[in-house]
């Protein structure tokens, strides 16, 4: 059964002109249920992550500042969110959603998080709508318990996974692969194990050819026994922040490529939603929904 983490605590208010589309977190599961792709039984609601799990990945001083709401104005602005207790509670619940999804993936081959993909969170700071790094936290959870020996992060959000790269810069058990807009945020890139920078306007054929080559090479060379897939849909040509030229169908082909390769190799995979900022919310929801439709088609 496809298991999907759904963190149903999105009442935290944001300014009306805020560019982060919070509504997609409710619209996506509603769409999947409406069309019959999933049923209520597919969803689980995670509990908040324990402090000890947070501190396995993140700096204690930074975590204390989040808990006490004592980030500086500059630090808060870099996250993109007005800090609040509700926001931190939401974040640690999303983190555990990816941890729990990883455990389900060991049983079912694949699991998803309707949220997560918070790849701009560093060990000691948050950036770009990310306070804590769910991919890093979940990877460390598996490694610490001997549930995985070699993790591959496939980060296909349009923005480089700079926080994930920094967290695992000295960890050979986690290979970080980020394929992103070369001229897009963040302007200062961290060094992933493999970075593939894309020119503005990159279209479907160019993108998919590159991904096909690198994915085949990495699965062969890294020999991962677990994959974390950051499946941001801000690669779309319609995205306000993306600057690439991909279609919804091209984005779907991207997701099919990742999921089919993992399935063929017998590698469990967790997909976290990542970014998506198209003007029309329908474009965002449709592109994200394709990832879940494919997971059902390929695995179940």
UniProtKB/TrEMBL annotation:
Q: Which GO terms describe its molecular function?
A: histone deacetylase activity; hydrolase activity
Q: What does the UniProt keyword field contain?
A: Hydrolase
Gene Ontology biological-process annotations:
epigenetic regulation of gene expression
* Hydrolase in keyword set: yes
**Which stretches make up the Histone deacetylase domain?**
18-289
Q: Which Pfam families match?
A: Hist_deacetyl (PF00850)
Q: Which domain of life is it from?
A: Bacteria
Instruction: State if Hydrolase is listed as a keyword.
Output: yes
Protein family membership: Belongs to the histone deacetylase family.
| The protein, known as | Deacetylase
């Amino acid at each position: 059964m496809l298991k999907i983490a759904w963190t149903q605590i999105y009442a935290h208010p944001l300014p009306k002109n805020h560019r982060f589309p919070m509504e997609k977190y409710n619209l996506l599961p509603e769409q999947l249920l409406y069309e019959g792709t999933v049923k209520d039984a597919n969803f689980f609601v995670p509990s908040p992550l324990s402090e000890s799990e947070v501190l396995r990945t993140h700096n204690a001083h930074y975590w204390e500042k989040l808990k006490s709401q004592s980030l500086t104005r500059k630090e808060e602005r870099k996250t993109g969110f007005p800090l609040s207790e509700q926001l931190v509670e939401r974040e640690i619940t999303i983190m555990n959603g990816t941890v729990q999804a990883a455990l389900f993936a060991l049983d079912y081959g694949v699991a998803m998080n309707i949220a997560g993909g918070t790849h701009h969170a560093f060990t000691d700071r948050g950036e770009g709508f990310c306070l804590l790094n769910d991919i890093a936290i979940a990877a460390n959870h598996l490694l610490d318990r001997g549930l995985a020996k070699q993790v591959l992060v496939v980060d296909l959000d349009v923005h480089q996974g700079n926080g994930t790269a920094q967290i695992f810069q000295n960890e050979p058990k986690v290979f970080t692969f980020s394929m992103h807009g070369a001229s897009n945020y963040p302007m200062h890139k961290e060094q992933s194990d493999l970075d593939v920078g894309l020119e503005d306007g990159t279209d479907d054929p160019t993108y998919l050819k590159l991904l096909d080559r690198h994915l085949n090479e990495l699965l062969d060379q890294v020999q991962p026994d677990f994959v974390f897939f950051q499946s941001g849909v801000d690669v779309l040509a319609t995205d306000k922040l993306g600057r690439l030229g991909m279609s919804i169908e091209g984005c779907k082909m991207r997701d099919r490529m990742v999921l089919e390769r993992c399935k063929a190799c017998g590698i469990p995979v967790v997909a976290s939603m990542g970014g998506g900022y198209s003007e029309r919310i329908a474009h965002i929801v449709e592109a994200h929904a394709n990832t879940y439709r494919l997971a059902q088609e390929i695995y179940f």
